[in-house]
Amino acid sequence: MSLRRRALLATLLGPPLCGMLVASLIAAAWLAVGRPVPARSDAWFELAQVGESHYSGTFDRPLFFIVVGSDARAGGPGGSRGDSLHVVGINPALGAGTIIGIPRDTAVPIPGRGTDKINAALQYGGLPLQADTVSQLVGIDVPYAIVTDFAGMTAMVDEIGGIDINIPQNLNDPDSGASFVAGPQHIAGHQALAFARDRKDFANGDVSRSENQGLLMLAALGTIRGRMLTAAQAGNESAEVMRMLAILGRHTELDGVTILELYRFARVGLTVDPAAIRNVVIPTGGGAGSNLSVGPGAAGLFADFADDAVLQSH
């Protein structure tokens, strides 16, 4: 990124605004474009406090999230399993971060339920149990979790105007709906969902799918950052910030998280170039049926990640 573009982004994101001003901006945006509290039918995400610590909003400490994509959908198999599971760490002071993908078929201890596929935790005990299971696996008290489903993800991508992504290989999977030629593309919501669901085009199935889901997250961040920078160059940054805040507010159901925290999370995410965020999948081994064991090296990966959200030796 050029120095001029970095300067524009720094101006756009700026130093932290005072709490009252931020809350007022978000409230004004919600009232102009949506609702201060979204109806459940309008919510794309649930953003919940699941750990004991709170993020202060300062840039001198990392921010950790669990991101869950559930398989809940109209006409689906019933229930809700965590079929897309990632731990995201952002270190704004270092300008870097990590996405750690956990394949849904990984067999792990689920508190109170014995050992099962990790995605079953969402069906057994909702987001709190899914977050607790992931936190115990990685050895971090992750304080926040985000969950979305098929409809929420599709609607989000469409409302932000699509995502620019580099598809890594030709894909043709009728079950997921994935049909792509390799290379840079601009994709709509239904295409993003199909890409995120495709596992049958890959020899290692869910492992590659988990990696591609991380790639999709980075592409979404890169697309939004690009639009913010373009708006800044055109002198329309204030309008674009208000628009993005309105989109977030209208479609995010908050559970134990304040309006100000929502702004802080968005601000931290936008400060980091996606090129500085590693996208990795945990090591896995064999297992019975489709169950994957946690492979050798996972403990070292988690320890490397836990201290500052950045991988120094992996």
Summarize the structure in words.
The chain contains nine helices and 15 strands. It has helices spanning about 5-15, 20-35, 120-140, 150-160, 190-195, 205-235, 235-250, 260-270, 300-305, and strands at about 45-50, 65-70, 80-90, 95-100, 105-110, 115, 145-150, 165, 170-175, 180, 185, 250-255, 275-280, 285, 295. The longest helix is centred in the last third of the chain and has 28 residues, at about 205-235. It has about 325 residues and is α+β, with helices and mostly antiparallel strands. The protein has one domain (about 5-305): LCP protein (Aminopeptidase, 3-Layer(aba) Sandwich). It has a seven-stranded mixed beta sheet with strand order 12-1-7-2-3-4-13, with helices on both faces.
Give the class from helix and strand content and strand pairing: alpha+beta
Specify the CATH homologous superfamily.
LCP protein
Q: What's the arrangement of strands in the largest beta sheet?
A: 12-1-7-2-3-4-13
Give the count of structural domains: 1
Major sheet attributes: 7 strands, mixed
Mean pLDDT: 83
What is the CATH topology? Answer: Aminopeptidase
CATH class designation = Alpha Beta
Helical stretch count? Answer: 9
Distance between the termini: 25 Å
CATH architecture: 3-Layer(aba) Sandwich
